Each structure stands twice: as C-alpha cells, then as structure tokens.
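Q: what sequence does this backbone want?
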C-alpha cells in the first residue's frame, strides 16, 4: 500500500477530531479530486463571513501520475459571488507549497544562486460552483489557472488559452 494512503487516512482522522471544534470556526471537512493542489486532497475549512471562506488542505499526487510523488500544502480563499437557494458561485485564490525537494531550487547545485528561489510556491486563481445537497453535505467544482500559466499568457500574447492550461477539480464538503 502506498504511503499517500496512510497520509490521507492520518489526515482524515486528525481532522475528524475537530468535529467538536465548530465554536473555534472549523465548520467543514473537505475532500477534493484533481486540480493544481493534488490528485487526492483533504483538509478543513471555515466561513469568515457570508462572502469569504478559507480552507487549509493537504494534497498528494502519486508517482504513477507524475515523474515522482508530489505533496502539497495549500491555503484556499473563496469569495462568494452569487448565492441562490442551494447553489453558490465563487471565485478564489489559492497559494500552495510543494513539499518535495525537487521543487526547491536552492537545494540543487545545478541552479545558480539567483535562480527562481520560490519554485516550490505556486499561486492559483479559479472560478467554481457549489451545490448544497443537505445541511451536512455539498459538492463543488472549480476551474483555474496557475501563476506560471498566467505569466506565460501575458508574456506571449499570441498564445491562446487551451484545455491544457486549465486545471479542474471536483470535491465534497462534509459540514461539522
């Protein structure tokens, strides 16, 4: 069994202990599939107010889907744009950090000292929607672009946005 499965379940059990933490602000456990943060993502989130939500997430990409395993930590900031009954439309900004050493250029002697020091930190903007199934469950989707793709499109104004540029994710919220 791969180590990511152990990490995933350890994270789930740690966060399930937060079920009595609603008075501290945590109000949901989040599971997400795909997107920039990882193939398998888990974490927790809470509402700051009716417009702003924040989530802390751990993501994993197994080596079978990448050149090597990738683990990330992310902070997602959702801004609710529109709410109607059971549907919410939001935009957001996420900042994520790849924990693996291959993304830390300062650890690799092949790069000069001034070479892009923050290679392990990425940004992401996205649009998404959420459908509330019940008081305890909701499902969501998000489509976004990371910071490198945005800079590349700006620098190469002739380049078009294509499906390879977009990342897509689906997920589920479990309300505490």
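A:
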């Amino acid at each position: 069994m791969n180590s990511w499965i152990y990490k995933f379940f350890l994270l789930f059990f740690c966060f399930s202990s937060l079920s009595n933490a609603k008075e501290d602000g945590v109000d949901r456990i989040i599971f997400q599939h795909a997107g920039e943060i990882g193939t398998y993502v888990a974490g927790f989130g809470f509402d700051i107010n009716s417009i702003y939500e924040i989530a802390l997430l751990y993501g994993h990409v197994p080596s079978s889907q990448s050149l090597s395993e990738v683990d990330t930590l992310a902070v997602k900031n959702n801004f609710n744009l529109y709410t109607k009954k059971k549907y919410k439309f939001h935009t957001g900004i996420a900042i994520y950090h790849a924990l693996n050493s291959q993304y830390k250029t300062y650890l690799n002697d092949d790069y000069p000292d001034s070479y892009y020091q923050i290679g392990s930190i990425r940004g992401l903007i996205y649009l998404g929607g959420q459908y509330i199934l019940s008081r305890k469950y909701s499902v969501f989707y998000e489509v976004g672009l990371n910071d490198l793709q945005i800079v590349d499109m700006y620098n190469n104004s002739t380049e078009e946005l294509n499906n390879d540029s977009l990342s897509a994710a689906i997920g589920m919220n479990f309300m505490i």
